[in-house]
Specification:
By secondary structure, this protein is of the alpha+beta class. The chain contains five helices and 16 strands. The radius of gyration is 26 Å and the shape is elongated.
């Protein structure tokens, strides 16, 4: 199979429809792409969808043990405390009691959390625009195309296999555990949480861990991806070249439907190509049931 770029598919659709309006062909290609990724198995009763192996990649996430930034401190002689203001939000409620290291000043103990940019430390001195570091807040960004975990995260450096898989639960549980014991340690639980929505980027997600790590670690995991729409450029479909012909014929079918206002010849070709791609993908992957994980 030869891979096809989105641009080459658009060229073929333009030749078929005669419509060279910018974006017209691309719209059909993306409709086709979405249909293929949906994986609806042709002729299945009741309707069933195929889960494409390439939409569930393996990945690694590095759990840093420290967070760094730049901050300014104002010392209060009466209270014998230093109010530390960071240029970006690096603080969290769990930092109460943690040590913050300030360049050229030394280690200070945080005694009060005010906001993500302000904490109060015991003792200290005035300082301006100094580099600071302190234990991580235990919150890590997941990939931009993250669409959910396939299974539990895995810590490959754990000697005990039964403890290599990290328990996944609700964010509320992580918060409750941190409330009861905010200390750092060997992370053993985590939760996936949505970030505040931004229209320009779409939904993004974070991983919260407990306890906050006392040393850097690398976890492995498998997740469902949310592929981005194609552009009329030299870019490939996820899973290319396995699904390229299915996407192309789905694009033809979309254009054909627009012109004839009913399914036609290319709808049949699409169903054939999709069935073939699903069969090829199924031959390439062997899934181990999660129930055998600890056997």
């Amino acid at each position: 199979m030869l891979p096809m770029t989105a641009a080459s598919m658009c060229d073929l659709i333009e030749a078929y429809t005669g419509n060279t309006t910018a974006g017209a062909a691309l719209a059909h290609v993306n409709v086709g792409y979405a249909r293929v990724l949906g994986g609806l198995i042709p002729g299945s009763v009741p309707p069933r969808s195929h889960i494409w192996s390439f939409t569930r990649p393996y990945a690694e996430i590095t759990l840093a043990a420290t967070v760094t930034g730049t901050a300014t401190g104002v010392y209060d002689d009466d209270a014998e405390q230093t109010t530390i203001t960071a240029t970006t939000g690096i603080f969290c409620p769990e930092h109460d009691g943690d040590t913050i290291t300030v360049t050229d000043v030394g280690d200070l103990t945080i005694v009060d959390y005010t906001s993500s940019t302000v904490v109060v430390a015991d003792e200290g001195e005035d300082f301006e625009a100094k580099a600071v570091s302190l234990p991580t807040n235990g919150i890590y960004d997941l990939p931009a195309d993250f669409g959910g975990l396939v299974n539990d995260l895995f810590y490959p450096n754990e000697d005990d296999d039964s403890e290599s898989y990290i328990r996944t639960g609700a964010v509320e549980r992580i918060l409750a555990l941190r409330r009861d014991n905010p200390d750092v340690g060997d992370p053993e639980q985590c939760a996936v949480a949505p970030k505040a929505f931004t229209a320009a980027t779409g939904q993004r997600w974070q991983l919260w861990v407990y306890p906050r790590p006392d040393a850097a670690r690398i976890w492995r995991y498998r997740y469902n991806i949310l592929p981005a729409a194609l552009t009329d450029a030299a870019v490939y479909c996820v899973g290319s070249p396995m699904i390229d012909l299915a996407v192309l014929y789905a694009a033809y079918a979309s254009a054909e439907h627009d012109m004839a206002h009913k399914p036609g010849y290319y709808e049949q070709l699409f169903a054939q190509q999709l069935a073939g791609a699903i069969a090829a993908d199924a031959r390439n992957v062997l899934y181990e049931p999660l129930s055998t994980r600890y056997s």
